[in-house]
TrEMBL record:
Residues 22-133 form the Acyl-CoA dehydrogenase/oxidase N-terminal domain. The gene is gcdH. Its cofactor is FAD. It comes from Pseudonocardia halophobica. The keyword Oxidoreductase applies. SUPFAM superfamilies: Acyl-CoA dehydrogenase C-terminal domain-like, Acyl-CoA dehydrogenase NM domain-like. This is Glutaryl-CoA dehydrogenase. Keywords: FAD, Flavoprotein, Oxidoreductase.
Length: 397
């Protein structure tokens, strides 16, 4: 392990998990960190405050050449989940909104096509998406369904010859106001099975309206989607998506990514609070020199370290093919719960200044609320883990 790698570890990575990356992987993470410092950090606060997406950053994102990392054959062999996780950690450490934008495109949309598309569909869509010439979105959640989406999916698909007709509504669909293609999940009227469809932005019958007045992830352009006799060619139906089990395969991958994003959000809040504690003076000395403030900082660091350790082990299990639903569910549940406490402690360290954007904590504090809820609420994830450890399902039938 080189001295340079030691110096490059995040302040919040107290046990040095980043040293598990190879030299080449560390270079990739280093490029992402520099990109975050020079391109994202200067615009993140303004974009979040205005609830506007900085479209000018997408070509710069593309130059990082990281969208292909999870996928075998796009730019060589698929990268280790550990590297993919640290990329998410770095992005979220600077801005959870742009990490979510990238995760929706790279994880949910590209992941759906990679797992559920035919070889021809993968070749048709993934290379351009990897170059970020086409941006993707993922349409699963509905206005009347969240946690019960597996059984309560209301959007329907009806086949008419070589065309499918989609009708229904989707809600909270990130990137949907400007995405080139949206993966829509709908229930086949003929066999009641959940199927996936790639709907292009110019498809007649699909409209996306931005959701306003959010308090979290404000830069992410979440939308309400309405599908009214939206016609999709059979060639745009994901050929390997034949049940919700296939949909869940995509979510299993990305749920672990949310755990990395939550941990990065914690680190961002912690590092901002730590810097503030060294500069802010009260009673004639920096507040970082007071016992109560140090207690808050150490509690935050403990949450981060435990969460990062869980993320690292989950990534190892994913690479070994050993990760199951309950492993991803526990990681998501634990890290987002720890994150909620950690950002609150960071806000406490910064005091009254923690409720304005200027001091680096408020945005993390607010964004944590969205991360806590999406990709399965804490309660649903506890039921997934509870079923695994007891052998009894407590889900409502």
């Amino acid at each position: 392990m080189s001295d340079l790698r030691d110096a490059d570890l995040l302040t919040g990575d107290f046990f040095g998990y980043g040293s598990l990356l190879t030299d080449e992987e560390q270079k990739i993470v280093g490029r992402v960190r520099e990109f975050c410092r020079t391109e994202i950090a200067p615009i993140a606060q303004e974009a979040w405050s205005r609830a506007e997406f900085p479209h000018e950053i997408v070509p710069k994102f593309a130059e990082l050449d990281i969208a292909a990392l999870p996928y075998d054959g796009l730019a060589g062999p698929a990268a280790r989940r550990l590297l993919i996780g640290f990329v998410s950690l770095e992005l979220a450490h600077t801005d959870a909104s742009l990490n979510s934008f990238f995760g929706i495109h790279n994880g949910l949309a590209m992941g759906s096509i990679d797992l559920c598309g035919s070889d021809e569909q993968r070749e048709r869509w993934l290379p351009a998406m990897a170059r970020m010439e086409q941006i993707g979105a993922f349409g699963l959640t509905e206005p009347h369904g969240g946690s019960d989406v597996a059984q309560g999916l209301e959007t329907t698909a009806r086949r008419e010859g070589d065309t499918w007709v989609l009708n229904g509504e989707k809600r909270w669909i990130g990137n949907a106001t400007f995405a080139d293609l949206v993966v829509i999940w709908a229930r086949d009227e003929a066999d009641d099975a959940v199927k996936g469809f790639v709907v292009h932005e110019d498809n007649p019958g699909m409209t996306a309206t931005k959701i306003e007045n959010k308090i979290a992830l404000r830069t992410v352009q979440n939308a309400d989607i309405v599908l009214t006799d939206c016609r999709v060619l059979e060639e745009d139906r994901l050929q390997r998506a034949n049940s919700f089990k296939d949909t869940n395969g995509v979510l299993r991958r990305t749920r672990g990514g949310v755990a990395w994003g939550a941990t990065g959000t914690m680190i961002g809040a912690y590092e901002a609070a730590l810097a503030y504690s060294k500069e802010r003076e009260q009673f004639g000395r920096p507040i970082g020199g007071f016992q109560l403030v140090q207690d808050l900082l150490v509690r935050m660091l403990g949450n981060i370290t435990a969460s990062l350790g869980m993320c690292v082990r989950l990534a190892e299990m994913q690479d070994a093919g050993e990760a199951r639903d309950e492993h991803a569910a526990l990681a998501k549940e634990y890290t987002t719960t720890a994150m909620r406490e950690t950002v609150a402690l960071a806000r406490q360290v910064v005091g009254g200044n923690g409720v304005v954007l200027d001091y680096g904590v408020a945005k993390f504090f607010a964004d944590a609320e969205a991360l806590y809820s999406f990709e399965g609420t804490r309660e649903i994830n506890t039921l997934v883990v509870g079923r695994a450890i007891t052998g009894h399902s407590a889900f409502v039938r």
